[in-house]
Amino acid sequence: MSGCITLGPDFTKPKAPIATSWQTEDSSLSEETRKQAEWWKLFNDPVLNTLIQKAYRQNLPLQVAGLRIIEARAQLGIAVGGFFPQTQQAQGSFNQQILSKNRPFGEAPDSNFRVGEIGIDAAWELDFWGRFRRGIEAAEANLASSEADYDNALVSLTAEVARVYVILRTAEERIALARDNIILQEESLRIAKVRFDNGATSELDFQQATYNLANTRALVPIQLRSIRQAKNSMSILLGMPPTDLTEILGDARPIPKAPDVISTGIPANLLRRRPDIRQAEFSAASQSALIGVAKTDLFPRLSLTGSIGLQTSDFAASNFSDLIDTDSMFVTAGPSVRWNILNYGRIWNNVRVQDALFQQSLVNYRNTVLTAYQEVEDARVAFVQSKEESNLRNVGAKAAGRSVEISNIQYREGTVSFQRVVDSERVLVTQQDLWATTRGDIALNLIAMYKAMGGGWEIRDGQAFISDENRNEMEERTYWSNLLAHPRELSWWEKLYNLTRFTAPWLQLW
């Protein structure tokens, strides 16, 4: 019993294919490694900074992720507690007993008596095969997985706030452009009406100007709808019902502009930065330990049991001293063995189930890594190409604006028909709207890139996983010891476990 036996595989970090370089290259993308804790500040937009800070403090799904960490801490405490004597209970009883006079072997001298008893029972299943140690390993990995899940939720939250904000500002820009074109087309309609009223042109010019203006005006309610929906989404991200966010958002602002150079780091950094990759690794570690837990059922369980107490058969309040007399003491102690020798089919199949689940987690880890590389590559190529598209749209929008100026001059001079004016104004609306959209796409693709690289979760360093409001509510209901603290100190039983684990293994009967 002095040897250390731990059944099941010892977990090692899974291997996954690692890219050596990014496929999309551009002068604006640098592989220099820089801290990406607050990547949204690259947009230099104070309103966006404020929104993300508010969402970090108030977002409800993020609070749920934080509470899962508290749950995992408590589960770890349960697992560590199982490593020590599992049953310790104090008990006391008082019984008035009347025995049957017709019972076997005749009547007792005294068939009516009182029995009083107080004592303590204890049972300790020894961790001979590593059942409880593997359970602690699984709980520790599950706690680390829940923390990685929190980080992943924080990455998604910061990216979603920034994404909705860019959509909002893009819609505002598109409305502004549409209203400028409405003013332009209203002037064209006025000219067409004057010329029609004076008999200089037919009604066709007037009707063409009318429907051209109506189509442009129709763009405004479309963008107003987008703005309202974006504000509704932002309200939910901030943990509040849909409301007026004018006080936070202020007046219309330009679409956030990406910096000239973006630091993306090298591909190998993804394995350290992406919380979902870490979560997949910890999930595999937890499942690996459960294989060992299942294998311990194949072998006998050795327990030490015992009880000590006081007992008397003539107990009454008047002679309580008889109960606490040394002659009333009883002691029982000894080992016990339990072995499920007729259940090997069930036990082995449970081991196989846990092993199959572990293999699934390994494959899922590799797939998570591959998916991460794909998301980064997709965002990189989208970012680069959206910048190129924006440059071309800008050229097209400027050319369309100049075309409107020329067509209006020629129409007034009578050298072209009004159809040329209508066509050029319609093209101008389209080109300017597309240019605004592609400028928004640049910001959106940059946001997607930083999300794919796992940026943003570092802002929780040194911060509590749960809000003060949640902590206060929980402490009013339940005694939580130090489980709600951050960073959390180990409890006394966790410290004792580490002590016996690393410095005195003989205490566990290893």
Notable features of this structure?
Outer membrane efflux proteins (OEP), 4-stranded antiparallel sheet, alpha+beta, 510 residues, single chain, 2 domains, 12 helices, two-stranded parallel sheet
H-E order: EHHEEHHHHEHHEEHHHH
**Main β-sheet description:** 4 strands, antiparallel
Structural class: alpha+beta
Mean pLDDT across residues: 84
Low-confidence stretches: 502-510
Strand order of the largest sheet: 2-3-5-6
What's the Cα radius of gyration? 37 Å
Task: Tell me the overall shape.
Answer: elongated
**Helix percentage range:** 55-70%
Q: Please report the distance between the alpha carbons of the first and last residues.
A: 6 Å
Structure description:
The chain starts with 28 loop residues before the first strand and ends in an 8-residue tail after the last helix. Helix 2 (60-81) packs antiparallel against helix 3. It has twelve helices and six strands. Mean pLDDT is 84; it is low at 502-510. The protein has a four-stranded antiparallel sheet, with no helix packed on it. A two-stranded parallel sheet has the order 1-4. It is elongated and about 130 Å long. It is an alpha+beta fold and 510 residues long. The protein has helices spanning 46-58, 60-81, 131-197, 203-217, 219-237, 246-249, 270-273, 275-295, 344-413, 418-452, 468-477, 492-502; strands at 29-30, 87-98, 112-125, 262-263, 301-312, 329-338. It folds into two domains: 35-83 and 129-242 and 275-299 and 346-462, Outer membrane efflux proteins (OEP) (Up-down Bundle); 86-126 and 301-338, Outer membrane efflux proteins (OEP), CATH 2.20.200.
